[in-house]
Each structure stands twice: as C-alpha cells, then as structure tokens.
Amino acid sequence: MYIPLSTAQEMITGNQYVSSIAVEAANSSDLTAVTDSITALLMKRHGITETSKEDFNILNQTSLSSTLSSITTILTYLLASIASISLLVGGIGIMNMMLTTVTERTKEIGLRKAIGAKRRDISMQFLAEAIALTFTGGIVGVLIGWGIAHIITLTGLLTTSVTAYSVILSVGVSVLIGLIFGYFPARRAAALNPIEALRYE
Hints:
single chain, 73% helix, 0% strand
C-alpha cells in the first residue's frame, strides 16, 4: 500500500523529517556512481561545501559487506586465540596426567621390559593411551557442542548446523594434541631401566 509521505509522518512515525531513504541501483557496478550522485545531491540540498561537515550517512552493500567481513575476521582471530590457549592448557594437563601414570606404573613397565617388551612397545602403549584419552574428550566435546547447537535452533533465535568437516576437524585436533603431549611421557616410560623399574617403590 502506498500513502503520501506527509501522511506517513503524521500517522506512523510522528516525525516532520525523513530519517532514511532506500535507493536501488540498476546494476551492482553502478553503486559507486549512484553513491557519489546521492552524496553530491544531499550536500547541495543541505548547503554543505565540505565533506567533513556532512550531516548524513550513506551505506551501501559493499560497505556493509566490508564491515561484516572485518568483524567476522576479528571474531575468528579472537576465537582462534581462545581455542589455542585452551588446547595448550588441555595438552599440558594430559602430559602431567600421563607422567603421573608412568610414575605409578613404573613396576609394570619394568615387568613388561623384563619379559621381552621393547622400548617401541612401551612407547606405543602410552601414546595409544594418551590418544584414546583425547579422542574420547573430543567425542564428548562434539556431542556437547551438537547438543547446544540443537537447543539454540529449537529456541528459534538462530539456525545452527554442525557440519561433518567441523566434527572431523575437532576430533582430529584432539587426537593430534594427544599425540604431541603424550610423546614425552611415552618416551620417558620407554627409557626406564627394567632393573631400576622393578626395584621402584
């Protein structure tokens, strides 16, 4: 329905001035020319001679896209920083836990070496345990994330989706953390002297 501008101001907005105008360009390539023409017209109508004294704002799809892109980039870097710190703290926790496990199972390691287990066998055992630990944590994290995303979708505020790529990436990073931070405890376990290990109290 179309109504006169004066009627809209009186009955709907209650203002005596136009707060915004929407303009559609024929082609996306004409956006810059249209923006320049509107700027020149408004400056003339408002009696403004210097661009620094403009009392209006002009936004187009290009500027909005650029703004959204910069905000998205900042948020991506912020989340990546938080995730990196979380992974580092989690990795250190895994390493400490595995070192404690190696200390508690020193006699077991010595016994296995005494009956013929090689350094590689001991190392692979503790690496497998570290990877299993982080893999399980990754799966639990994915399930919790999927649950939260599903709840957000049910609220109707935002539509979310969990892609296969994000699941694979999350679980893959978890396994990688277990491999990296489990390497030192596994190497330490493999380097134990079987005689000293059997005598350990």
